[in-house]
């Protein structure tokens, strides 16, 4: 039994190795230095895909080299708002509703604007005033921007708590009041940050890493969870519940079959007529020419 298991593990590792090499190479190649660029309108194209269990699936191409590495997503009126992990905000039409995108660099942020690693923006949420909160990795911090991303309104450093440079806050949602719920990528803890400071709690049930989070109209919180298996990346949806001690527990709901190299990193919620809800999901291609940016629409039952 032990010998068979060792053989199976060895074969699985060999099958997984090419996928890990591609993912690692893309991650390294996708971290260039660059000059901040002015706001620009560019063409956008959607190509339909067949993905089981979705209301629609598309690859997204934008005619601007800044598009890629999408790490967060929000619904912004009739459009979608994507945030890249190089500090670029991209206003996208929903498929079938336009052929242009608007790109702008964040007006300010941690570290030098010439180094993508210091503008590693990973999470996005809108507050009640209409301003936007953005969470950054590397120089772990929270920044607030005005509704049009024309200026920064406030900035707050986060205690690193032993986080690695690229294992900081990956997901962020409102906690239903004036506070924010922050989830580091490791999937082992959560932070509540408000006017009275922050509180750290335990998080359980995540079989891998947290990629993003979104709050449903009824108040429930959904998480995007990813893990690396023998077949490559596995993307799953989970529901977050809270205990009396303030800690969280994740219950996995379903797997999203988008392929072993597709890394879903953004989730947004759109209320539909008749009380229905649509989830929008988007992937991070790590600025790779070999991997796609995939957009999914999933209607909840």
- The largest beta-sheet arranges its strands as 3-4-5-6-1-2-21-20-19
Q: What order do the helices and strands follow?
A: HEEEEEEEEEEEEEEEEEEEEE
Rough outline: globular
| Helix percentage range | under 10%
- Biggest sheet character: 9 strands, antiparallel
Number of helices: 1
Q: Name the poorly predicted regions.
A: 1-15, 25-32
CATH architecture: 6 Propeller
CATH class: Mainly Beta
Describe the structure in your own words:
The chain has 301 residues and is mainly beta. It has a single domain (2-299), classed as Neuraminidase (6 Propeller), CATH 2.120.10. The protein has one helix spanning 2-29, and strands at 40-48, 56-62, 70-76, 79-84, 88-93, 100-105, 121-126, 132-136, 141-145, 152-157, 169-174, 180-184, 189-194, 197-204, 209-215, 221-229, 232-242, 248-256, 263-271, 277-284, 294-299. Strands 3-4-5-6-1-2-21-20-19 form a nine-stranded antiparallel beta sheet, with no helix packed on it. It has an eight-stranded mixed beta sheet with strand order 11-12-13-14-18-17-16-15. Strands 7-8-9-10 form a four-stranded antiparallel beta sheet, with no helix packed on it. A hairpin with a 5-residue loop joins β11 (169-174) and β12 (180-184). It is globular, with a radius of gyration of 19 Å.
């Amino acid at each position: 039994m032990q010998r068979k298991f060792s053989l199976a593990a060895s074969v699985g590792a060999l099958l997984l190795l090419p996928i890990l090499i591609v993912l690692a190479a893309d991650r390294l190649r996708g971290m260039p230095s660059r000059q901040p660029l002015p706001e620009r309108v560019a063409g956008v194209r959607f190509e339909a895909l067949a993905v089981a269990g979705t209301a629609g699936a598309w690859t997204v191409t934008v005619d601007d080299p800044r598009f890629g590495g999408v790490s967060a997503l929000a619904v912004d009126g009739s459009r979608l708002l994507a945030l890249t992990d190089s500090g670029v905000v991209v206003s996208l039409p929903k498929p079938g509703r336009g052929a242009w995108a608007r790109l702008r660099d964040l007006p300010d942020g941690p570290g030098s604007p010439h180094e993508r690693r210091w503008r590693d923006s990973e999470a996005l949420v809108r507050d009640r005033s209409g301003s936007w909160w953005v969470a950054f990795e590397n120089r772990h911090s929270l920044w607030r921007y005005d509704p049009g991303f024309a200026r920064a309104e406030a900035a707050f450093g986060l205690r690193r708590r032993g986080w690695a440079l690229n294992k900081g806050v990956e997901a962020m949602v409102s906690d239903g009041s004036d506070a924010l719920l922050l989830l580091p990528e490791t999937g082992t803890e959560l932070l509540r940050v408000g006017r009275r400071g922050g509180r750290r709690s335990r998080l359980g049930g995540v079989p891998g890493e947290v990629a993003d989070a979104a709050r449903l109209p009824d108040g429930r919180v959904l998480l995007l969870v990813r893990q690396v298996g023998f077949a490559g990346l596995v993307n799953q949806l989970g529901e977050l519940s809270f205990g009396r001690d303030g800690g969280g527990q994740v219950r996995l709901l379903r797997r999203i079959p988008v392929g072993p190299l597709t890394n879903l990193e953004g989730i947004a919620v759109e209320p539909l007529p008749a009380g229905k809800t649509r989830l929008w999901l988007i992937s991070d291609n790590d600025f790779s020419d070999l991997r796609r940016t995939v957009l999914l629409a999933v209607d909840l039952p």
